[in-house]
TrEMBL record:
Keyword Nucleotide-binding listed: no
CDD domains: BTB_POZ_KCNG3
Identification of the protein by name: Voltage-gated potassium channel regulatory subunit KCNG3
Similarity comment text for this entry: Belongs to the potassium channel family. G (TC 1.A.1.2) subfamily. Kv6.3/KCNG3 sub-subfamily.
A Gene Ontology cellular-component term: cytoplasm
Domain BTB: residue ranges: 7-116
Superkingdom in the source lineage: Eukaryota
Membrane topology qualifier: Multi-pass membrane protein
Amino acid sequence: MNFGRGPSVVLNVGGTRYSFSREVLKDFPLRRVSRLHGCLSEQDVLEVCDDYDRERNEYFFDRHSEAFGFIMLYVRHGHLRFVPHMCELSFYNEMIYWGLEGSHLDYCCQRRLDDRMSETCTYYAAEEPNGGPEGKGRRPPAAERRKWLERMRRTFEEPTSSLAAQVLATVSILFVIVSMVVLCASTLPEWRAPENRSVEEQSRYTAESVREPSGIIEAICIGWFTAECIVRFIVSKNKCEFVRRPLNIIDLMAITPYYISVLMTVFTGENSQLQRAGVTLRVLRMMRIFWVIKLARHFIGLQTLGLTLKRCYREMVMLLVFICVAMAIFSALSQLLENGLDLGTKNKDYASIPAACWWVIISMTTVGYGDMCPITVPGRILGGICVVSGIVLLALPITFIYHSFVQCYHELKFRSARYSRSLSAEFLN
């Protein structure tokens, strides 16, 4: 160290003192602390720390002392974990201040940090050179463009972030409702094409339906959804991440069938060799039901459901494993008791194990359609055990899923309330 006196230095972090030798600071794992070794004047020191005591050679940092204690454990032992009962983002902010990155965390804490940052849409960027007092009066064109893109992105992604976002969300909801009403009405007998039409008549009917009022309404809705998806793709920060998001994939699945059906109608025409074109078109048109999932962008309940499924995928897999194991056991036993043994009474409904699996799943979920049931005494006893075990196996993972659902709901509600406060400030201004 080229500044200060004495063989050792003292770091005072939030009231907790740490003493180090000068040589240790030279190769210290924390970049901010190691920068003290190259300071030549008191002005250089004050750029690194918050205050400096020349007499005691003590450097004061106004930071979280407990968080720095956990960071020092990483310096000594090589393992970095979150502070209990401390926000992950706050601890990550302390890490960035001292010169650490998310990759220094243990794997379990890295996953917690990634989930937390994805939920709150938090991004930590480096300080811009024009962010000082000299650059406040004017902004470069690139900064103005980034600010405009960020405002557009929030308008399309966060329905409660501004008045324009709420208006846009309301219009999008209206289009979804109208498209669903048209889809349901198109299945009525008066709207539906007769089944005895020929392929030529069916293709001609499909082409003419585009010019009908329902076809016009459908085209308008598709145009709106397509324009919305294109704009959101343009203003997105990461194009690859945009394509990988589940809601965006659902949007593409809801929009693409319309254009495929139109292209098939145009190119096939009256080609008699495509005998299944009418069925394919009906399947593609029915895929518009995915538009309902677009409401997840505007309702906390659907967002909570999606976030809960994302976080609890391990519990969901465990639940499916429980059900599959129980199905394999009870279906084999029920087939053996009802049809496999030569007891003079054979139940044809249990002729095979796959057929018995249907009875097992409806019994374990306590649905009990009654389309098939055991008739032998051992089979009925096995059925009672199957029902009771189904109740127990389904109840075991539900507790974890329930607590995760409540936590996700409160987090999304808090996030929505935060954007609502910014919306109220914008309205008052």
